[in-house]
Amino acid sequence: MHASWSSQAATWTLTVETPEGERTFECSFVYFCTGYYKYESGYTPEFAGLGDYTGTVIHPQHWPEDFDYAGKKIVVIGSGATAVTLVPALAEKAAHVTMLQRTATYIVNRPSQDKVANSLRRVLPENAAYALTRWKNVLLQNFFYKLAKRRPEFMKRLIAKGIAKELGPHDDKDFSPPYNPWDQRLCLVPDSDLFRSLKSGKSSIVTDEIERFDAAGIRLKSGQRLDADVVVTATGLELKILDGLDLEVDGNPVRLSEKLAYKGMMYSDVPNLAQAFGYTNASWTLKCDLTSEYVCRLLNHMDKHGYASCTPGRNDPTVKEEPVLDFKSGYIQRVIDDLPKQGSKQPWRLYQDYFKDLRMMRYGKLEDGTMEFTKATP
User: Fold this and answer.
1) What's the pLDDT tens digit per position in 142-152?
2) DSSP string, 132-193
3) What distance in Å separates the CA atoms of residue 27 and residue 8, rounded to the nearest whole number?
4) Dihedrals phi, psi of 195, to nearest 5 degrees
5) Stated pTM of the model
6) What is the C-alpha to C-alpha distance for residues 79 and 94, in angstroms, rounded to an integer?
7) What is the number of alpha carbons within 13 Å of residue 164 lying toward its C-beta?
8) What pLDDT, in 10s, does the model give residues 291-336?
9) Which residues contact 34 (CB under 8 A, 6 or more apart)?
10) How far apart are CA 72 and CA 202, in angstroms?
């Protein structure tokens, strides 16, 4: 996909591939809701000896339709949300499922049904129950995230206590990451399904590193072997900002790695372009909702005042560049140098904080001294 902005025409020209072939669109403003990863392929490391393996290898992004895994021995490589979701589901039919992880992940049990929300629905109108439930969830998430960042050792003990309650005696190394809570995302287990699967013996966790594959399975660096009929590589995703868009402004190529993110939704010196991008520490759509609301405010403001374009201008020399995400997950670290930067202060700073974003994006000034507007040409 290619997008080219003309300041003279105040127009974006987008060339995209469709099932019917290449098409061209023109618009005055473009809002990307393309997600943040490559849909066509996930990330798979280079495993020694993988070509020797005679079983089936599947990446979750390319799960075969009607794949029959009943009675098979399965190894799921990974420890993130995909792995902890797949393991109990596969274990219902498989002979056994092993979750093979290089490092542990913080895992927390949560009920799939919100009892507070259900109670509120019985006594309040739907809209009121929804609003109260939403604010309850936002406040709780914000509280526990800040608690984890300020008192990581306390949060570690709290999570460990929850694991012990679910599993009883267990190997701590399988649930004790070498980093603090929320340095990477926490995994939520709905209704204890993973823990029930582990206690039943239908699944297990092995914390080790892969030495190499062989014909029948995986040999680990500890010397242990894992036999496998099927290996599922739940090894992550590849980030793809703006769906891999080739972007240019007035004929000049735009390198996003050289840009600052404005309010987490636009880019320095790039006119009339916004992107929905969510939180790493909360519901993804929570930030996307705010972004969409801001874009609507911005468009209405431009219409009201006859503006043809709006451009976040990098006009404050005191703003320092910083990595856009302070997050240690592998899928972030693999591409961190290719991502846009954030700035050292508003409106270039990403706080990952709903309440700060709410003030800035719902109630903050649109003409804030950074956003530069130009009038439409008569």
Assistant:
1) 899 899 999 99
2) HHHHHHHHHHHHHHHHHHH-HHHHHHHHHHHHHHHHSS--GGGG--SS-TTSSPPEEEETTH
3) 14
4) -65, -40
5) 0.84
6) 19
7) 9
8) 999 999 999 999 999 999 999 999 899 999 988 877 667 767 777 7
9) 242, 243, 275
10) 12
pLDDT in tens, 106-135: 999 988 888 888 899 999 999 999 999 999
Cβ 256 vs Cβ 99: under 8 Å: no
Give me the residue label for tokens 């929300």.
117
| Residue reference for tokens 């090894």 | 235
Element (H, E) at 213: strand 210-214
Name the phi and psi angles at 111, rounded to 5.
-70, 145
Structure tokens given for 241: 């900002």
Closest CA relative to residue 247, chosen from 234, 232, 230, 266? 266
Alpha carbon of residue 78 to chain centroid:
16
Asked whether the beta carbons of 109 and 199 are under 8 A apart, the reply is no
**Domain 50-233 in the same topology as domain 2-39+239-375:** yes
Give me the phi and psi of 330, to 5 degrees please.
-60, -40
Domain ranges in the chain are: 2-39+239-375, 50-233
Per the CB < 8 A criterion, the answer to whether 87 and 112 are in contact is: no
The third-level CATH classification (topology) of the domain covering 50-233 is: FAD/NAD(P)-binding domain (3.50.50)
Residues in the chain, total: 378
**What's the CATH superfamily of 2-39+239-375?**
FAD/NAD(P)-binding domain (3.50.50.60)
Nearest-10 crossing angle of helices 115-123, 126-150: 150
- Residue ranges in the chain assigned as alpha helix (H): 81-91, 115-123, 126-150, 152-167, 193-200, 284-305, 330-333, 354-358
Residue 215 CB contacts under 8 Å (≥ 6 apart), including other chains: 52, 53, 54
Q: pLDDT by residue (tens digit) across 16-75?
A: 888 888 899 999 999 999 887 777 778 888 999 999 999 999 999 889 988 999 999 999
